[in-house]
Amino acid sequence: MKIVTEESIESLKRTVDTGTEEQRKAVQVIIEGVKTDGDEAVRRYTSKFDGVELDTFRIQPQEIERAYHALDAEMVAVLKEAAENIRNFHEKQRTHSWFDTSADGSILGQKITPLDAVGVYVPGGTAAYPSSVFMNVIPAQVAGVERIAMVTPPSVDGTVPAGVLVAADILGVEEIYKIGGAQAVAALAYGTSSINPVDKIVGPGNIFVALAKREVFGDVAIDMIAGPSEIVVLADDTADAYEIAADLLSQAEHDQRSSCMFVTTSEKLATEVQKEVDDQLSTLPRKEIASTSIDDHGAIIVCESMDQAVAVVNRLAPEHLEVLTAEPFQLLPQIKHAGAIFLGKYSSEPIGDYFAGPNHVLPTNGTARFSSPLNVGDFVKKSSIISYSRKAWEENHQKIAAFARLEGLEAHARAVESRKGKENE
Fold it and tell me: Smaller CB count within 10 Å for the chain: N or C?
């Protein structure tokens, strides 16, 4: 892990992966195929890309039952507790409709309405991500979404990881389809004879899933185009090098393009962390992936002061930020840009991935400058309410008509004035 200067920060930032022209065209062909041929196209692409021939896409009750048998009772209990923690956190994000009545009798307000249907993409195949089920489904449920359709790629034997199915069942998700890739995104967006379309698609996936979400955006809503994981650890000389290295590697093992950065005011700690990363890498099962991440997208930045270090963090706007200083809460007001902020020795990033409660679907690639974690608000829409009283109209219609004429919109002005002569009715 290299030690670099603050001036090199811009060169460390990654660009959003928009795929190759070949990949984009392939995704467009898949989407058009699903729009035209529906289930037949989904079967065809599932056979081609996943090596599985499916008669039916929908998960059957016996598959859920087998999933419970595959997990021990203690693991099921852990999943249930995690789901409860995540639900409790998101319950606090609820917003409500409001109405404000003015003295003149006018009523203004905002009506909150949950989306009708949401599609959740859960990565699968060789990996299992029950945490993705919780983080994408629970805020939708708390928001009041009535229909949630989950898709996840099957393994080569046509099964779905037990943890994913148990997690979905714990939440009461009944509509689960074992399909993945761009064909699953297209099926959710446009519907087939066996899958009804949804209004919004959320959840991470590979480059083909990301490109498919880009293509269908506008016909349906999407959450975000998430890039590879990233972490910044901010520490002073009170922090422990072994713990910092472990936390950096927890993200490096995700993906070869994961970004892992350490920002500190201590040159001694920087050297110790550099050595610890190398030592711990040697025993990691996913050593190859983590090593590439550290070599290509890892860096240590030594700053002269904590103010300078915080400024560096804000420029990076990381997905995950750990603050390992003597008084981490004192720095919180200065931190403006981060998807999730982990404060103190015992708040390592994986705690947020699985169990604490806040959402782990977070903005990446510096988009924390203007984006937020996935939340309950992402699954509702807001309608403005306007009910002008007669008195308000009498007091304001001339001003409004003048404003309309300022913009050259005579019909607007006439629409407001059309109530003239009726005020005595």
Answer: C
